[in-house]
Amino acid sequence: MSTQAPAPDQMSLSTSALLPTPAAAPDQTSAPAFAFAQVAMSASSHVPAHAAASPGGRVFPALTGARPAWRRRFANRFAAIVAAAGCLAALIPLGFLLAAVVSRGAARFDLAFITQTMRGVIGAGGGALHAIVGTVFITAATICFSVPLGLAAAIYLVEYGRGKLARTVTFLVDVMTGIPSIVAGLFAYALLSLLLGPGVRSGLAGALALSLLMTPVVIRASEEMLRLVPDDLREAACALGVGKHRVITQVILPTALSGLVSAVMLGVARIVGETAPLLLVAGFTDSMNLNLADGRMATLPVYIYSQWQNKGLDAAAYDNRAWTAALLLIGFVLILNLLARLAGRLFAPGAKRHARAS
Known about the structure:
It is a single chain. By secondary structure, this protein is mainly alpha-helical. It has a domain at 129-226 and 261-357: MetI-like (MetI-like fold, Orthogonal Bundle), CATH 1.10.3720.10. It has helices at residues 8-18, 31-42, 69-105, 111-115, 129-160, 163-177, 181-196, 203-227, 231-239, 244-255, 257-271, 276-281, 300-309, 315-346, 351-357, and strands spanning 51-53, 59-61. The chain has a two-stranded antiparallel ribbon. α7 (181-196) packs across α8 (203-227) and α9 (231-239) packs antiparallel against α10 (244-255).
């Protein structure tokens, strides 16, 4: 019985099948996949859960080291509670203030108070019509002084301001923003005394003093609003060959109009309750004065101060008039803010387009 020897090729094949194949070294193209595999294997190996080895032997933080879900929920709820507490802490004093003014000012809030003056009134009765008219006149004159100058300065700083002049203007605006109101009143009084003589009292002088306080606020707020206009609009208009002045008047200002209205209202809210400068340059009177350029002119803040400071025999009547004037002043500021919000919605970009679509 003869046995047939296996062929050499079959012997080499079976021998090579029994030998272990060497592991292929990772090349550069498979390095990311190898690193990912090492990170996955580190979770079940002796390497700690917070670290994983790289092909070069370095240790990297694990990719799954996030905080537990209950910690995230606790942090979110804690932050919400702190924010709500801060909001309530700011609203509680305001609520008490409004409640006190409304409860005490409602005693004299009637038609006679807003249609009569204090001319010839000693005790009870009278009203604040002359102070209401004076407040409206002086505030309107202050807006006429401050808004053009403030917008012009803001446009210069945003569109043209470069170098030392722009830095100087910015520095002076920042300084004027923080000056006390009595300093503005003294400056206006000294200036008008040099020009028109000592002892000058008029509503126009009061508007000049208040414009020193309102103009820096308008400049800073308008500057921020103009900087919010995207540069793409400026570049697109200039690419069409439009001049710089037309870009400002037809592109930038209409786009930022709602923000500019809010800037003006911020300035009005800054000056509407000022008393010290008006006491110096506008004075106080019990009669109606419709001439801004001549004679003393009463305003609501000065009216409140006068009623509270110079009480007669019937002190309760003076107190009631002061609280009612304070209520009117708060209502005046509220109406201005509502008008500003309405103007912001009407002049907002795309408001006309949405109105036509609806």
